[in-house]
Amino acid sequence: MTRAGTTWPPPPAFIHQPHPAPACRGHDPDLWFRKTDQEEAKTICGTCPHEQPCRTWAHAQPLDRLYGVWGGTTHDERRHHHQQRKALR
Fold this sequence. Notes:
Layout: E1 2-3, E2 6-7, H1 38-45, H2 51-59, H3 75-88
Antiparallel strand pairs: 1-2
């Protein structure tokens, strides 16, 4: 997917798996991208069988190309995680 000249990463493969289905399936996709709904999205992520692989996938993506809540983490939380990892190197 492209937006304003930016190439977004493709979603993780498990997003489309029928079993076990990700907890986000069936919810309004915008929920994961509105700052006002981040806590609700994170709560739903907390019930997902794919939460940990989704989080791992999200942390592996470039910060400037992945927004919203993924794997129960917000963009700001992932940025903070990346900064901490950089400081430890």
